[in-house]
Amino acid sequence: MEWLNSVLVEHSALQAVVVLSIICAIGLSLGKIKVWGVSLGVTFVFFIGILAGHFGLSLNHDMLSYAENFGLILFVYALGLQVGPGFFSSFRKGGITLNMLALGVILLGTLSTVVASMVTGISLPEMVGVMCGAVTNTPALGAAQQTLKQLGIPDNALALGCAVAYPLGVVGVILALALVRNVLYRKNENLLPAEEQDGAFITEFKIVNPALFGKNIKDINVLHGHDFIISRLWTGNGDVSIPTSETVLNENDRILVVTKEKDVEALTVLFGEHETTDWNKRDIDWNKIDSNLVSQRIMVTKPEINGRKLGSLNLRKKYGVNTTRVYRSGLQILARPQLRLQYGDRITVVGEAESVAKVREMMGNAVKSLSEPNLVSVFVGLTIGLLLGSIPILVPGVSTPVKLGLAGGPIIVGILMGTFGPRFHMVTYVTRSANLMMRALGLSLYLACLGIDAGAEFFETVVRPEGMLWVLIGFLLTVIPVLIVGFVASKIMKMDFASISGMLCGSMANPMALNYANDNLKNDAASVAYTTVYPMSMFARVIIVQILLLALCA
Hints:
Layout: H1 2-8, H2 13-30, H3 44-54, H4 61-87, H5 94-120, H6 124-134, H7 138-151, H8 156-184, E1 201-207, H9 217-224, E2 229-234, E3 240-241, E4 254-259, H10 264-271, E5 272-274, E6 294-299, H11 315-319, E7 322-328, E8 331-334, E9 346-351, H12 353-363, H13 367-370, H14 375-389, H15 405-420, H16 432-463, H17 465-492, H18 497-507, H19 511-521, H20 525-553
Antiparallel strand pairs: 1-4, 1-5, 2-3, 2-4, 6-9, 7-8, 7-9
Helix pairs in contact: 2-3, 2-16, 3-16, 4-15, 4-16, 4-20, 5-6, 5-17, 5-18, 5-20, 6-7, 6-8, 6-17, 7-15, 7-20, 8-16, 8-17, 8-18, 8-19, 14-15, 15-20, 16-17, 17-18, 18-19, 18-20, 19-20
């Protein structure tokens, strides 16, 4: 028993690793349990840590601080890498509207936090902790902790406030979404977006428009103005070929086109007749369409291709092949000439077997190389992120310089590396499983340490009247901004419920609520809206919480 006591209780590096591992293992296991279709996932580690801290388990202060900070840094950097490729593109077209609404949720919640602190007399650091729990945002909590340490203010109340408000923060968004749907969409109309998203869509047309007879594809593309790629062409006698920009279209030719689904109606007017064959089914054997042509997905694994524009490779001119689609991070993208290829992309190439083999050699297609983590770029990114986070930034009206800190610096560099790394031929690719591993490991360590730190005073705080007040205020900080913005988006902006629900879940960083929305809608439109606003929302919360504390507490 003395041996076991020394491993679990006596402060040492061994004891810290064992205790944190046990807490993470138990928390992650219990986090898989669903209640009414909702599970807490990795967040359960937080509550197991609180329980361990309540029963007297503790770690050496330096070990606890190191593990907590390292976990936070690893989590936010991996998060930045994940959202980076879609961060700036999320501001295009309808993404601007969704991001502005998400920013409205964030600003309403921040303003409500300040007002609640003034009305109730609860200190702002405590109230910021409640807000972080109410919006289920651990990176914002980490940024707030770093800011208070910079100001020399104790941060114990932050973790306590977050722990108290977190459970109803998860449930509150789900209840608000259910209320928005049942009250504002009672007739079940406008639940889904009218248009599908901007992905690649495959369809077939027959050339019966006399204006196109004898015209080549290049001229038609210039005149029409819509993005489309003709993958195959069947002539009137049944021969199939890969068209080039100089290929001439004739009456009754049939063409296989890759475009956007929303452009199908306009292309039907252009070509004349839309065939009904469904070419988007997953079980289509493209190589059986014609024995002379091969369709193959090729992996981009050569560093020299990373960041190159697809059009600059001249694949059609050099090898006589058509590139129709690019698969990236689970999305199917139209293969436009201006699209920059990234390490790990899978491109669909159609052509003769010998030509496709040459393209395969050019691109690399070394699938095994993708499983080897590029740790150099990870450590370089972490170093740059931490250096950026330590730079003092003067903000007008704030007496103390703002620092992005351990949370803000790495997430910004992660976003920039994920977005612009390929343009400078930097291999920043990390497999999805490796990214999930980094995030889960970092977040588990951070939440376990946070829970241990808050556990000693958690239950005493909850049973006190001020603890119950924290719970109530946290619930209101969750529900009120969601309901207000949900009403504006539905009744004033006439948006569909799927986009609203995804936007609200993304602005609150609440994947559990997103699961609820997806289960009820049976469609991925909510997930698309979630990923559109998530990067900006995460970045905004990390920065806003620091400015708030520096402006009002410095």
